[in-house]
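Name: Laccase
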Amino acid sequence: MARLEFAIAIAFALTLLALSSTASAAIVEHTFHVKNLKVSKLCHRSMITAVNESLPGPNINIEEGDTLHVHVINQSPYNLTIHWHGVLQLMTGWADGPSYVTQCPILPGSSYTYRFTIAKQEGTLWWHAHVSWLRATVYGALIIRPRSGHNYPFPKPQGEVPILLGEWWNANVIDVENEALATGAAPNNSDAYTINGRPGDLYPCSQTDTYKLKVQQGKTYLLRIINAALNNQLFFKIADHKMTIVAVDAVYTKPYVTDVVLVTPGQTTDVLLTANQAPGAYYMAARPYNSVPINVPINNSTTRGIMVYENAPLASTTPKMPSLPRLNDTATAHRLNSNLTSLVGAPHWVPVPRDVDEHMYVTVGLGLELCEKNRTCGGVNGQKFSASMNNHSFQFPTKLSMLEAFFFNVKGIYTTDFPSKPPVKFDYTNMTNSNNAALLFAPKRTSVKKVKFNATVEMILQDTSLITLENHPMHLHGFNFHVLAQGFGNFNPRTDRKKFNLVDPQIRNTIGVPVGGWAAIRFTADNPGVWIMHCHLDVHLPLGFATAFVVENGPTAATTLPPPPKDLPKC
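Structure predicted for Laccase:
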């Protein structure tokens, strides 16, 4: 492994030398035909919504600096938008995609073209639907390679392989979501997990629906792992093989050697895998990490694919199975989440901003909403499940997108009263508060935090015990952020600030806030517009688990949000 680390150091140096080269950027075009598709899985015939009749949808391959034009033709019966998860959208906030935030939906029978340039980013991102639960089947990889003449800051792999981890329901996912919202109960669990759209041979009728990867002994492969699952964090492992993490969320990291990876919904992890074992067959497998300390039903199944060495002896083709972490292995999850650091000086690396303009302490967690009169709902105490941040349960507008309201100065679409600290202080992670009625009911509001252009924002994201403690994957649109520190219990500014890494913290767009704990993040609001921050569990987002940042325009034309595209969908 020391040899690999030395090779990575040499590759990094060559990358720095190559930065002086120039290359012209390209316009890359794709057309997404989105429509319903009948598929057979798990002994069922199901109707899904898919892009170009494939699951996952098409991979998009571009180079840093390229401009992407994606023509989306909505032939499905549902409203639709596409979000380009992790793309910074520098001065192109109209293309970000979350419905009613930056645009109104593309109606059935309509079309829209997303146009944006991807600059100052390299690595693995992805795209997905951002209306209701459609992203269960409407998703794909977005791979950004270095410009021509530039190199990775690690040895060039002999192959690159997207690994998209997904979640499958036999039922129509829109029906599953609507039933949960109507009853106020938790939605039905998924029926399977998938690797590149295939559930694997542990599920019924799936012996031939198993993903297979062929490798050559001695060669190194770059696996681009994406968690596209709706509601579950996933451990991923390959039998008898180590992996070296070299990037997360399209930001390079110091090489980190591990035999298991954890990805929350929304996150990506790039790993180098060397096929250095005896020729044979080896399972790659993924199963959930469930942090909830109470007995909540969960899909505790395992998806697996097969990695097969070329020219493997027939006698060795029975694959070896990896030993995956326990379902509730928080110790392993925290080790994997907290030990990564960024690769200082790598392409597009950004140092930690030191002067903070906005200090925010934000509680995150579940709650309740009153059931309609003369009804009994399916949540705790006969009420409806809800969610909130700082006791504000986010409600999406329906008459106009928030970004249009910002640009045209339209009142009444959102308010700028999202609090920078919890309105009520309590012992946030004490489970005796899990059913405290005085804390469980948060008002429904479209409230945002307004910040000045180029302001540095520091957020302490604090889990709460309301209903239950849980690890919450939080995703911020429009920005990457530095993860300064993570810990358990209530954040203590006197002692926990001493733990902040201000030198080389990992840089992400999605962070799993530790169960019963906190995460400290920091970013510079250098992109004017409206940017939502939300829990990336689709079971929670419709319940109000979100807020948004309204970033004011800067002092020049180059730092002012341009007008919306003429073909932007209308509400």
